[in-house]
Amino acid sequence: MVKIFIDPGHGGTDPGASGNGLQEKNVTLQISRNIRDILTEYEDVQVRMSREGDQTVSLSQRTNAANAWGADFLMSVHINAGGGTGYEDYRHNKLSASSASGKIQAAIHAAVLNEIKNYKVQDRGAKSANYHMLRESNMPAVLSENLFIDTAADANLLKNNSFLQAIARGHVIGMAKALNLKAKPKEELTVAQAQDLQRQINELKNQLAMQVGKPADMNKVSSWAEKDWKEASENGYFDGTRPGAPITREETAIVINRLRRNFIELIGKNSAEMIKIEERLAAIENKAD
Ligand SMILES: [Zn+2]
Prior knowledge:
binds zinc ion; 8 strands; elongated; alpha/beta; two-stranded antiparallel sheet; Aminopeptidase; 10 helices; about 290 residues
């Protein structure tokens, strides 16, 4: 059994960095949840998260939880800020690239960049730093900085669910390789795969809808019909609403009858004459039938 501790950076009263309508704590949680879900595709993996929702959790609480649980690996997920672009990850600065952390970092680094290669994200390198999550954890640990929240192009990618899914899959592929995780047989769809499929279907649907074009707003009158619509509504043939709506046969019947009654009233001088005109009109209409 391999125990993987996933740490979505920030949360609760600590939003982390923000920019372009995004808060770091929400994006790190989404990526972390994706990582957790994708890990269900592997055998003998146990996953725990430092937070499952928008909770406030201190840095020591996070490393304490991972240490107490006896995690085999700790993955801390963050979003960068401060002006820049691209992906980078960190191991503790006292560890070399050939340390356990360094090897897992290298595998994750390569896999993430491979999974997101179509998005043309800059590779900022595999780095090291003296961060709490890397220093105070008793197991190999890696911290990833997934693009810059305050750079518009990066933020646009962070708003794209397919991208967040790809970046999470990169993390998992790297972990699987470095930690020798074995993929489950694939006869059945995992929850993450089903979600992946659903997402692809939704994307196709959106693309189709865009090709067909937006449906016209039925509450807006076309410029070429503006004068006639206004006149016909003022004259009581229509109630003035929904000019662009399709008309049914029964609605058409009401309009015809309104016209017919007005026509008879116009021609007839008194009620007796009106009845006569109506009879003659009916005779003509029946002949036309
Ligand atoms: Zn952060």
